[in-house]
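Appendix B.2, paired examples.
Example (i):
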Amino acid sequence: MRKECKVTKQTTRQVNFDSVSEGSRLSNIRTTFPPFATIVYIMNLTPLISLIMLSMTCERFDCSVKRVQSACVEMLDDPNCQNSTRRLAKNVLRLCGARYRKMRACGLFAVDADLPLRMVELITAYCIVLLQFAF
């Protein structure tokens, strides 16, 4: 007692089902939802976009700290600078030298402009290794 049922429905989405009722086994289910697929693709890209934006922001912060340090060095080199300004520049340089490091994620890796590139390199390397094991 084997029944075959074939249903095809085409609207904004296309669904093709070939099912066999015996043993409730489904074979050759192919589902295509063009609007849904674009939403899924966008949702998959969201973490990558967030990572790129975070990396850019941290890199801009690092650049601004370097600019502040170079401005302080210029103030110290200026002979017309007041004593209070020189003291402030020295304190800023001392603080930046002692406490400032690039932003790090859990102390494992620096979050800067190179992070998205390093992530792509890592994913590519792992994909190559997995492909080597597959073949």
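Example (ii):
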Amino acid sequence: MVAHEEILDLACLNCGISSCERGSRWQHALVLFAKAQLPNDSTYSAAMLACRKANQWQVALSLWTERRAVSPAPTSITWSAAVSTAESGSQWQLALFLLQECGDSFLQVDGIIYSAASSACQKSHQWHWPLQLMQVMQCTNVELPLVVESVALEAAVAGGWKATVHLLDKMQGRAQSDGAVMAVATAACCQQQQHEQLRKLLDDSQDATVKALWHTRLFYESRDCFC
């Protein structure tokens, strides 16, 4: 009976800490956290995310350090919170390190963890990393969240026309992304006067709308592109 009450008390504490995240009340979250006699991964994760929401990422990482020091090994819940914390602090190197550590811990690295690491790199203008992470996800059959595709697209734009064409090649067959990537790739090629590559993209494209728009634009505005 006592054990059952302790579980209920911990569940209530976890809910209370989570509500502090929504209100950005990170100090109150820590007060509640300190009341947990045997905090579990949900407790740590909720407290870390409450601190992260209030831009107290250093405090959140100190909770992560504390969690790593106790058994059993952290689950994906706390790994995700740790990488998200690194993202909020624009600590891209730490985010990648945590991502690697998570994989080394024989845990299944999901799209949420990859998304946080990719966003951390984006915020620090480390454009090549989101593209590499997306490629790793594809090779390991991890489902690509839309946020990863969006970050990869922004990274490709920063990388120039070659990066966008490379991304387009990697994203073939993903209906929700092909059109956007195709539009960016063709625009980058035309802007940088890569006319031969632009013609190839249009010839290979299966997107009739994008092809029609570009052929119309080239006819009226850039007819010399194919001359």
